[in-house]
Each structure stands twice: as structure tokens, then as C-alpha cells.
């Protein structure tokens, strides 16, 4: 079953739950709200790879990077402000590493989206997620010789976080489909006008 929120016309695979002019704000609202929910619900396991895929599938790269940066800022604000992360050099640097990893995952998702042929939308999203997650985790792993934390990269932990990202991606795509079907912003009228 192909999702109709990913049209086959000239812009390739793009999530289109709202009119293109509203897409950056919708994506920002969706991902920052999701990030807040994930930050409070899972603390250190925010599904940035899933966020990267949604942003890359919905927006051009520059806008996707800005939206993911916004989600990362929400995550860090909640972490330090509400969840009382320790304010020390290691924690702050890890925060920036996580942000950089999320941006790399977004860029990788966008690149994969541009390289893949049209068709088989769920497969495209799955390939984007695998790529984004691999890039994200490798970027984090690259920081462990300097910052520690190698123990967080066991097969069990990496697999659990990967599955969490897959569930979040499915949920975010479902939300996009529901918004597209409900059409609260007059998307269908804007597309035909």
C-alpha cells in the first residue's frame, strides 16, 4: 500500500500532510512536540534518527536541518531545565555531539532520499531510517574515546533504541497521514487552486 502523502510528482518523495508553504512550521511543531514528549518520557533516548527522516522527507535540506536543530534545542532545554541534567563539561559536550549527530543523520536521510528511485514508499522510509540511525550512532560512537560512554553501545541497547526510532517514525508518518486526511489547513484546496 503506497502512502498518498508521498506524491510521485517532480519533488520526489516528500511528506505532504499540509500545503508546502505550511510544511516548515508544521514539521517544526510536529518534531518539537514529539521531542518534548520523548524527552520527558524517555529522558536520554530521544529518537533523533526518526526525526531526521521525517524532516528530510518533508522539507528541503536547509529547512530540515533548521527544524532538527529546533527539536534538539527543545531536548536540551528540557534536559537541563526540567530533568536537571548535570551542568558539567562532559554533559554539555555530549549535548553538542548529540546535536551534531542528529544533523548528520538529517543530511544522510536527505541524501538517501535523493538517490533512491521513486516507488515503494515504505521501503524508502525504511532505508532512510536505517541510514539515519547508522550515521547517528556512528557519530555518537566516534565521541566515546574522548567523552566515555562506550557501555551505551551494547547490542541490546542499540537494538532497543533502533526499534524505538522505528516505532516513532511509524507514528510520525501516521500523524502526517491523519493530518493530510483531515485537512485542517485547507491543503486539498490549496493544491487544486
Architecture blueprint of SSEs:
Blueprint: H1 23-42, H2 48-58, H3 61-81, H4 89-115, H5 121-147, H6 155-182, H7 187-192
Helix pairs in contact: 1-2, 1-3, 2-3, 2-4, 2-5, 2-6, 3-4, 4-5, 5-6
Oligomeric state, counting identical vs distinct chains: single chain
Poorly predicted runs: 1-11, 189-193
Number of beta strands: 0
> Percentage of helical residues?
over 70%
Helix run count? 7
Percentage of residues in DSSP E strands: under 5%
Please tell me what the overall shape is: globular
Please state the CA-atom Rg, rounded to the nearest Å: 17 Å
Output the helix-strand order: HHHHHHH
Biggest sheet architecture:
none
Integer average pLDDT: 86
| Distance between the amino and carboxyl termini | 28 Å
Give the class from helix and strand content and strand pairing. mainly alpha
Amino acid at each position: 500500500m503506497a502512502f498518498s502523502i508521498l506524491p510521485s510528482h517532480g519533488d520526489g518523495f516528500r511528506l505532504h500532510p499540509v500545503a508546502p508553504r505550511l510544511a516548515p512550521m508544521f514539521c517544526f511543531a510536529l518534531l518539537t512536540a514529539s521531542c518534548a514528549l520523548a524527552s520527558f518520557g524517555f529522558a536520554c533516548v530521544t529518537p533523533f534518527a526518526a526525526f531526521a527522516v521525517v524532516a528530510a522527507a518533508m522539507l528541503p535540506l536547509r529547512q530540515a536541518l533548521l527544524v532538527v536543530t529546533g527539536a534538539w534545542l527543545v531536548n536540551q532545554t528540557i534536559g537541563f531545565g526540567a530533568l536537571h541534567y548535570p551542568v558539567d563539561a562532559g554533559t554539555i559536550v555530549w549535548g553538542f555531539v548529540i546535536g551534531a549527530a542528529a544533523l548528520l543523520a538529517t543530511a544522510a536521510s536527505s541524501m538517501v532520499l535523493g538517490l533512491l528511485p521513486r516507488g515503494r514508499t515504505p521501503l524508502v522510509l525504511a532505508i532512510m531510517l536505517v541510514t539515519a540511525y547508522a550515521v547517528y550512532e556512528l557519530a555518537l560512537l566516534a565521541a566515546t574515546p574522548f567523552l566515555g560512554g562506550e557501555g551505551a553501545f551494547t547490542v541490546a541497547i542499540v537494538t532497543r533504541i533502533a526499534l524505538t526510532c522505528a516505532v516513532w517514525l511509524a507514528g510520525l508518518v501516521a500523524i502526517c497521514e491523519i493530518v493530510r486526511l483531515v485537512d485542517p489547513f485547507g491543503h486539498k484546496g490549496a493544491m487544486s487552486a
